[in-house]
Amino acid sequence: MAQDPQPRVLLAEDDDDLRELIQQFLEERAYRVIPVEDGLELGDYLSLAHENNRVPIPSLILADVNMPGRTSLEVLEQFGRDEGVPIVLISAFADDETRRRAAKIGVTMVLDKPIDPRVLGSVVEALISGNPAKKPRRLLIADDDEQMRAWLALALGSAEGQQVQEAVDGLQLSSALKLEGPFDLVVADLRMPGANGLEVITAARAAGIVTPALIITGFADEATLAEARALPAVELLDKPFDRTQFLEAIERLLQPTRVEEHDPAPAG
Predict the structure, then answer these.
(1) Is residue 88 within 8 Å of 62, Cβ to Cβ?
(2) What is the rounded distance in angstroms from the CA atom of residue 190 to the CA atom of residue 237?
């Protein structure tokens, strides 16, 4: 395949409006975009790129999972992943099986729709530049209280390029850690349906997953405190807390985060 000095993004998306929006967004940032409308066109381009040295290899493949003709997973499973070409899939309904298939063929990342432009821009820049330091942090929030989950996501997602994923109970938290990691940080409520946050983190540590974790709780007894202290890179934060206290805890676990607002967290 031919190499091209200007970064090229092979963009496969069957939604015309979204494809044009992403194309415009990337072209404004000096990327050359190769737009294709469905899985068949994606397969045709990759076939030509493998057979014809005049067809440039893309610097990155950005593809919707479900498209007419063939899914992007079917196409990528056929052609494989070219060494050095990151693959980012986007989907509104990526289930566990989709993510397993994606990981098997070397997909770099799966982004959930709707896409935050700041996250997309940071992901594309980081993957094309090959600079891991620029890659956006992946943060996982688990809380069965929808209001609290939204507040936490807003607090963490306010920084440029951070990607926040949510889980609604302990089972989803456990599944995400096992199948969708690695994450840079986990924020989990202690008491949730299915399994409590500390139990999930303890099991993750036993499985070799050492993602820093902040456990939030209004019910921390001495036994819980002792269990948390025994785990590496785990802190407990008692409810109620405000934004400053929350982000200060994140700083201790990870890296400094700007504190711009001090609105209190929901009490629930």
Answers:
(1) yes
(2) 10
Number of alpha helices (DSSP H) and beta strands (DSSP E) in the chain: 10, 10
Query: Residue 266 is encoded by which pair of tokens?
Result: 């929901």
pLDDT value for 1: 42
Residue 114, φ and ψ in degrees, nearest 5: -70, 145
Count of CB atoms situated within 10 Å of the CB of 252: 12
Enumerate the CATH 3.40.50.2300 domain ranges in the chain, comma separated: 8-134, 138-253
Quick one: which of 51, 74, 59, 67 has its CA closest to 108?
59
Cα(41)–Cα(172) distance, rounded to whole angstroms?
35
DSSP class of 111? E
pTM: 0.53
Q: Is CATH 3.30.420.40 the right assignment for the domain spanning 138-253?
A: no
pLDDT-flagged residues of the chain (< 50): 1-4, 131-134, 160, 256-264
